[in-house]
Every structure is written in C-alpha cells, then in structure tokens.
Design a protein that fits this description.
This protein is mainly beta. It is built from 1 helix and 15 strands; from the N terminus they run βββββββββαββββββ. The mean pLDDT is about 95. This is Glycolipid-binding domain-containing protein.
Length: about 200
Amino acid sequence: MPRGRYSLHDPHDHTPYAEEHFQCAPGPSGWRYLSRLTTPSGDHHGSVDLALDHLGRPIRLELHTGSWRVRGGALDGLTWVRTDPTGAHATEGNARAHAFAGTSPAFLVATARLLRLTPSATARVRLVLFTEPVLAPRTVDQSWTLVEREAHATDSGPLIVDEYQVTALDTGERHTVHITGDVVLAAPGIELEDLQSPPSALDS
C-alpha cells in the first residue's frame, strides 16, 4: 500500500499551495486512493477519496476543498452532486465522459488505469475537470500517448516508469506525466516528495 506526500504548486508561476498526504492500494474490485491536503502553513485544505472498478472506471468520488464538496461516480456517463459552502444548495450534473479530473495526482493515475496504453499507443479521453477553488465542473477532451516505458534498477527490483504525453485538444497545449504503477513521479504542478513503500503495479 503506497503512502507518501506530494507537493502541489501552480504550474505557471510555481507558487506552492498545498501538500497532499496520500495512501492508495489495489483491491479485489479495483483501486482506491485516499488523501488529505494541507496548505503551506499547515491548515486543512481538503481531501480526496476516489475508488475505481477493475476496468478503471470511477465508481465513487468524494472531493472536498475549502467548504465545497463533490460526490460522484459512473452512472449514465458520469454523474455528480456539488454542494455549496452553506450546505443549503446542491446542484446535480451529468456528462458523457469517461473519468473525473482535478489537481490531485489521483486523477492522473486513474486515467492511466482506465486507458491501459501500450508503448507508442494513443487514446482520446473525455474528462470532467473540477477546478479549484470552488470545484466548478468543466468537460475537457485530452489525448494521451504512452511515449516510453522504461525499467529502472532499484534495490527491490526493477521500477517501471511510464512517460505520457498529454495534449489538451481544445488548446493544443502539451505536457509530460511520469507514472510508476499507481504513483505519479512528476507532472505539471506535482512533485513526489516522500514515498514510504513501493508503488503497486498498474495491472494489480
């Protein structure tokens, strides 16, 4: 069960805004990721609880940031309920999309598990992106290409690192994501600062 800490920062000006303390693990029905987020000063910032089925589809999402909350899952595409800070109003949403997205590294691992690309393969995916700080939903289309799969020798055996090129299809903007198993090594706005146990294999 990998557990550790990511630092999150603005990918444009590199201003740090949160640390994400996480644990994740495969299970008999799929994969689950849990995390809590704190601000650079140590205050509570939010949390993520994401569960996938064995095909990589999101069966449950609970996302908190500030006072906003989203609960969702795969139903007629993707369905979610977003609750405002007062708790007095809740709005429902639905989109013909494949997976959720957001600032958490969990969503990058989830998309990789959903696509299960082989080297040099490319796939297009539609995501519902929840934007900070109010978790406003936005549907985006991306293209993912598994550029390279490389084995790195470690004391506990080879570490398989996948390098993805992710392209936003509306703007053409491209960025690179490095993932090993169910842990993100590096991505725009994300740095792995601490890992206390080896990552679980993608096919677990």
